[in-house]
Amino acid sequence: MAKSLFAFAYATSQQVKVRWQVLTGSPSEFSLQARFFHSTSLCIILLATCYVPYDLFAGLFVAALSSFLMAVFFFYGFFRSRFHHRPHSNLLFGIVGLLVFSVNFFSNAGIEGSTDLIWPVYLLLLLTICPYRQYLAWIVVYLVVFAFIHLVAYLYPGLVSYPFRTGKNQLIDRITAFPIPVITISIIIGLFRKSYDREREAVRQRDVEKSRLLSILSHDLRAPFIQIQQYLEIIGDTELSATDRAAMEKILRRTNDQTLEMLTGLLYWSRSQLEGGAVHLAQLPLSETLANTMAIAESLTTQKSIVLESCIDPSIRVIGDADMLQLVVRNLLQNAVKFTAAGGSIRVEAAPDGRIVRLSVSDTGIGMSPEKLATLFSGNTASSHGTAGEKGVGLGLLLCREFVALQNGQIIVKSEPGKGSKFTVELPLGS
């Protein structure tokens, strides 16, 4: 029984967590300030909604009206920001807080009431959602207004209304007001910690990628140049026969092409890291965008005696970045050629499915083991030699994943050892 209750409670908490994340927005869609605003708005709406009937029951009519107005104001700001992507107004947010708390201070026992508990946390919330350049101004304004209304209450005590007596009612007022600052501070600290953890993991991942790049530069990229130098020395031998010379030149050309491919991959990857993934999305006719990429792939498959089939409807359009999409498909085709033996086949096809287009590159190559699939896009997978000894740097698929994600898509891989692989790129459907 206890295990069932625990499982039910855990499942419920996970559902609440997922729905809360949906309501507050994802980091890729909203800034940290916007997510702060969404989270605290939802909490204030819930608390204010609960306080309205309580305040009415306790006879605190001004407090009930203040709670209702705060709930309406925050719901309006939350709805505009979360669902219409319109930024919240820091000026309006700050002024409403000053007006509501000033009125509530005089109508709710002044310094003996609970309003002073909420002033600081509301200012803290305001500072988390406003630009840095406004920090000092808002701090000064709130301190001045806070001091001013307390001075007025001191000089003119008749302006302060006491809707309850000290003792039990005052205790209830303090206890019911205390959750507002506690919950708000908890949300702010929680979001700050999540943001810090996310940034720390991003820095760690960048360090891993830099180490990977240095390793590639010191080994994988240096080795081909050494081979080219050795081949040039052999070709320079005057006793080399014409047949052997032709064979060596063929090997030299292939090594040069592979080195150029590796260098191109490194440059694209380095640029993506330096520029932070600049993407230019547009409506793209898929078949026309990939025409040149398919032509290059056809020459590669012909050299290796591989059959290349293409089945892309000319009417299909996607929303993507032309350069990034071409690089992704070029990498997938090069990998397919690399790991498919002579006599095999590669098929490229695309089909719309609802609001997305599925573009797939499948081959009859050597396939991959489950262990290889698990680390395929990690950037930590060592490059493997192809069926004809082709070599890469292991960054191609890492680039593909990053570039597809920047185009609001994803890559799905299916593969079995000895049965080939199928890479499916899902992109938003164009109009």
UniProtKB/TrEMBL annotation:
Record-linked SMART domains: HATPase_c, HisKA
Transmembrane segments: 60-79, 91-111, 117-132, 139-159, 171-192
Keyword list, A-Z: Kinase, Membrane, Phosphoprotein, Transferase, Transmembrane, Transmembrane helix
EC annotation from Swiss-Prot or TrEMBL: 2.7.13.3
SUPFAM superfamilies per record: ATPase domain of HSP90 chaperone/DNA topoisomerase II/histidine kinase, Homodimeric domain of signal transducing histidine kinase
Presence of the UniProt keyword NAD in the record: no
Domain Histidine kinase per the UniProt entry, residue ranges: 216-431
Catalytic activity field: ATP + protein L-histidine = ADP + protein N-phospho-L-histidine
UniProt KW Cell membrane keyword: no
InterPro entries hit by this protein: HATPase_C_sf, HATPase_dom, His_kinase_dom, HisK_dim/P_dom, HisK_dim/P_sf, Sig_transdc_His_kin-like_C
GO molecular function annotations of the record: phosphorelay sensor kinase activity
Enzyme class: transferase
Protein name from the UniProt record: histidine kinase
Source organism of the structure: Mucilaginibacter frigoritolerans
